[in-house]
């Protein structure tokens, strides 16, 4: 199964990781739609022509959350009348809308929406610290971390055809994510369709 990730262009300069991602065919984007659009569509056209089984992984928030970025996203949402969220950033819709429209009527049939939450069970101060990228790839994270994953599947044929309505649909899913994460933070229970805990794995 082929996996295609969208990653920031600057990551390709990281030793080992960046080169490996480039060799694996990851899609490097600059967050400039004029520059990115042709590259993205060329990749997808090849996948459709070859009927390549694939997962297209798109982190549509576009950046890691920080207090400053969350504050800016909340202010932007208030001005635009979008959902104001506390646990996630407002999604960037243009790339997602383009991907969905590109794959309508193709062998790619579904959009999977994953919401991943974690807590650091060994931290007595109650403050979660995310594991570094290196540690996440070379060490087992259990039992120090507990993970919950919510998975939902949507048929592309059932999604709105109008681009603005599709963008609104995506923002509504993000509001649901925010609600799920709020529920988890209140006692770390309930609110999930599917609960999964990572078990120890040999990497």
Secondary structure: elements and pairs:
Layout: E1 2-8, H1 17-23, E2 27-29, H2 33-50, E3 54-57, H3 67-80, H4 93-103, E4 110-120, H5 133-138, E5 145-155, H6 163-185
Parallel strand pairs: 1-2, 1-3
Antiparallel strand pairs: 4-5
Helix pairs in contact: 2-4, 4-6
Organism: Parasitella parasitica
GO molecular function, one term: 1-acylglycerol-3-phosphate O-acyltransferase activity
InterPro entries: Acyltransf_C (IPR032098), Plipid/glycerol_acylTrfase (IPR002123)
Structure description:
With 203 residues, the chain is α/β, with parallel strands linked by helices. Helix content is 39%, strand content 18%. It is built from 6 helices and 5 strands, in the order E-H-E-H-E-H-H-E-H-E-H. A 3-stranded parallel β-sheet has the order 2-1-3, covered by helices on one side. Helix 1 links the parallel strand 1 and strand 2. Helix 2 runs parallel beside helix 4. It is globular. The two termini are 20 Å apart. The C terminus is likely disordered.
Strand fraction equals 15-25%
* Percentage of residues in helical conformation: 25-40%
Rg (C-alpha, Å): 18 Å
Give me the number of helical elements: 6
InterPro entries: Acyltransf_C (IPR032098), Plipid/glycerol_acylTrfase (IPR002123)
Protein name: Phospholipid/glycerol acyltransferase domain-containing protein
Keywords: Acyltransferase, Membrane, Transferase, Transmembrane, Transmembrane helix
GO cellular component, one term: endomembrane system
């Amino acid at each position: 199964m082929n996996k295609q990730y969208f990653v920031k262009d600057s990551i390709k300069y990281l030793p080992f990781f960046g080169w490996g991602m480039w060799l694996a065919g990851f899609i490097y984007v600059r967050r400039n739609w004029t520059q990115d659009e042709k590259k993205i569509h060329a990749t997808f056209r090849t996948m459709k022509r070859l009927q390549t089984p694939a997962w297209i992984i798109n982190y549509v928030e576009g950046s890691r959350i920080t207090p400053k970025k969350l504050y800016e996203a909340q202010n932007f949402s208030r001005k635009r009348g979008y959902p104001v969220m506390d646990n996630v950033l407002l999604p960037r819709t243009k790339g997602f809308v383009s991907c969905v429209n590109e794959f309508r009527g193709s062998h790619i049939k579904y959009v999977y929406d994953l919401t991943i939450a974690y807590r650091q069970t060994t931290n007595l101060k109650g403050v979660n610290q995310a594991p570094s990228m290196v540690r996440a790839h070379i060490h087992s994270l259990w039992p120090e971390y507990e993970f919950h994953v919510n998975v939902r599947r949507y048929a592309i044929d059932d999604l709105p055809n109008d681009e603005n309505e599709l963008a609104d649909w995506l923002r509504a899913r993000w509001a649901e994510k925010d609600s799920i994460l709020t529920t988890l933070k209140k006692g770390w229970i309930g609110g999930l369709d599917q609960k999964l805990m990572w078990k120890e794995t040999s990497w």
